[in-house]
């Protein structure tokens, strides 16, 4: 098993830097929550207080199969959200990208496409991944559209796949990108990032 898959370097882009999540990021994460109802509608997270933020970070760090990152907007020097690798499987050269949420203030900007570009470059180019997955609630149209724009393909629905915060069962929409898809997806994603940075 390659230990490189569990290493977590800082991933530095033009506007966005992905820093390994640490306890010190909790205040910044809480400050990034500018519309909790909208940001956390479809997620298992829900940050309303400093205790919530501290617990979120602890939960992320305590998961041995997750590498969580703070998403930092370098132009303002502030945390604007978080994202993670998870379901890391070096043997089959696959992993998933998710546990992502971003401040509403950066929606439509460079934060999401550039953070995903950084994660995908590391996965495919550095680690030699053959497959990257995304999972989202079947009803989360915004997330599904965002994942599709990355160049990932919809592969189906996983019934009763995850428990929602309210205890109900979620059907998960499964998306994936393979190393065969990556060259074209990279070109498209790099163009999107350049366009967002030029605005």
From TrEMBL:
Residues 16-180 form the N-acetyltransferase domain. Gene3D superfamilies: 3.40.630.30. It comes from the Bacteria. Pfam families: Acetyltransf_3 (PF13302). PANTHER family: BLL6696 PROTEIN, N-ACETYLTRANSFERASE DOMAIN-CONTAINING PROTEIN. This is Acetyltransferase, GNAT family.
């Amino acid at each position: 098993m390659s230990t490189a898959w569990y290493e977590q370097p800082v991933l530095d882009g033009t506007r966005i830097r992905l820093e390994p999540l640490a306890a010190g990021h909790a205040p910044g994460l809480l400050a990034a929550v500018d519309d909790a109802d909208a940001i956390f509608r479809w997620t298992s997270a829900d940050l309303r207080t400093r205790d919530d933020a501290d617990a979120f970070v602890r939960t992320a760090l305590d998961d041995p199969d997750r590498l969580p990152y703070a998403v930092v907007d370098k132009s303002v020097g502030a945390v604007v959200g978080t994202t993670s690798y998870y379901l890391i499987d070096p043997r089959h050269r696959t992993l998933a990208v998710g546990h992502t949420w971003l401040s509403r203030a950066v929606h439509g900007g460079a934060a999401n496409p550039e953070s995903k570009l950084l994660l995908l470059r590391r996965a495919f180019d550095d680690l030699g991944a053959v497959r990257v997955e995304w999972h989202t609630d079947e009803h989360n149209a915004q997330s599904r559209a965002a994942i599709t724009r990355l160049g990932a393909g919809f592969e189906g629905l996983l019934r009763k796949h995850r428990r929602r915060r309210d205890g109900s069962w979620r059907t998960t929409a499964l998306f994936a990108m393979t190393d065969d898809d990556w060259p074209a997806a990279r070109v498209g994603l790099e163009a999107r990032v350049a366009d967002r940075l030029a605005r």
